[in-house]
Amino acid sequence: MKQTKAELRIAVAQDVLKSTRRLYVMTGMFVEQTQLTSKQMKKIFDLDDVKLIADKLKTNCRVCALGACLLSVVSLQNDFVFELQQGNVVGVESYDLADRLLKVFTAEQLLLIETAFECENFTGYFTGNYDELHMGSMTRYSRRLTHQLEIAKAFGERFNDSKKRLRAIMRNMIANNGKFIPA
Q1: Residue 41: what pLDDT?
Q2: What is the DSSP string of 13-55?
């Protein structure tokens, strides 16, 4: 039986919570590998299963809230193409992350999660259109969501540790049927 989007978001939140012991959680990036040798990276990328790659990256990458969600979505759905960049470094571009996460979350939910995690208002992301992924271009969302984004930012500011903040966001999603509702 196919999961509903709400059930998938709950599963993602549960997987992120389970993974926080292994993840290096920090603000300022989506997914960025820690220092691995080229040989180690090639070994990871020689795996045929995208889920296995995502699981290996959970131990070897720095992630923000959305990066953690991406790795969990990929682990659960086994559907994404990770690319090695120059120097055998893995990184995820904002448009790739947005395109994949928008299949699970709404743009508004991604904005709220990112704002709460980064403790900054991140309007301008996640409309699903690459041309609109740049800061400041989502004025229709910023007008409509200004108050909710302020609440999300205040929610995140209650936690001075990135990992604790990520856990709180994921617990909130689980408690609210797969939707982040900051209060």
Answers
A1: 63
A2: HHHHHHHTTT-EE-SS-SEEE-S--HHHHHHHHT-S-HHHHHH
